[in-house]
Design the sequence.
């Protein structure tokens, strides 16, 4: 159980275009979803926290107008990279959380490799 | 990293040897978790240790936590070539257990 999928797994787009990445929890309802970015040979950087039906909370330094997050249901969150530039090329990973008491289980998707040419 | 550092950044050992990775973090936590990532892939959850625990075992994995030093270590015993991956620690924070911050990671190479 607790499977999270991402689509697409890889995407190549031209500079200036927008790209949408989907994150789905397949067999559970996620109270919260998270979006991370990982540059080559680096760690995961939390970009934003997304709760169903409310606006995402962005980490410091992450442009909310560039990285649009929509969390329309308890099983789907989308990240749209708007007006993508080559420096946005990265590995984007989402996770879905089942938050209970004082412990958060986060289940990670397989990631989406974005290349902007 | 957003939360802390791991050392070493890279570790190369022979199959059968033990591998130890260390993680330091900056803020008070509720839980610390270790994850593995194969190159270009998603994360695999390895083990969770609570802030009131000092040591935890799972198979060939042993995790310690020292909250006074804000540090944790992951020991993999009798390593195998299949253990080759990057290993990350992730911490939440006292005021938000739902958000994770990852350490900088250790790239482990186990030579057959």
Sequence:
């Amino acid at each position: 159980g607790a499977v999270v999928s991402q689509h697409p797994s890889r995407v190549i787009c031209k500079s200036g275009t927008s790209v949408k990445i989907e994150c789905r929890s397949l067999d559970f309802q996620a109270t919260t979803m998270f979006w991370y970015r990982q540059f080559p040979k680096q760690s995961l950087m939390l970009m934003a926290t997304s709760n169903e039906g409310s606006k995402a909370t962005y980490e410091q330094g992450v442009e909310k107008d560039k990285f649009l997050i929509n969390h329309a249901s308890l099983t789907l969150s989308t990240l749209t990279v708007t007006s993508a530039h080559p420096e946005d090329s990265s590995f984007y990973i989402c996770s879905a959380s089942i938050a209970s008491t004082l412990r958060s289980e986060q289940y990670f998707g397989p990631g989406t490799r974005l290349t902007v040419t | 990293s957003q939360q802390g550092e791991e050392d070493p950044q890279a570790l190369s050992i022979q199959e059968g040897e033990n591998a130890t990775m260390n993680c330091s973090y900056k803020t008070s936590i509720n839980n610390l978790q270790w994850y593995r990532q194969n190159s270009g892939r998603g994360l695999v959850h390895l083990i969770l240790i609570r802030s009131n625990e000092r040591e935890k075992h799972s198979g060939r994995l042993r995790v310690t936590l020292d909250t006074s030093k804000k540090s944790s270590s992951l020991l993999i015993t009798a390593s195998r070539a299949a253990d080759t991956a990057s290993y990350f620690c992730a911490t939440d924070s006292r005021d938000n257990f739902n958000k994770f911050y990852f350490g900088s990671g250790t790239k482990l190479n186990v030579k057959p």
Chain B has a mean pLDDT of 91.
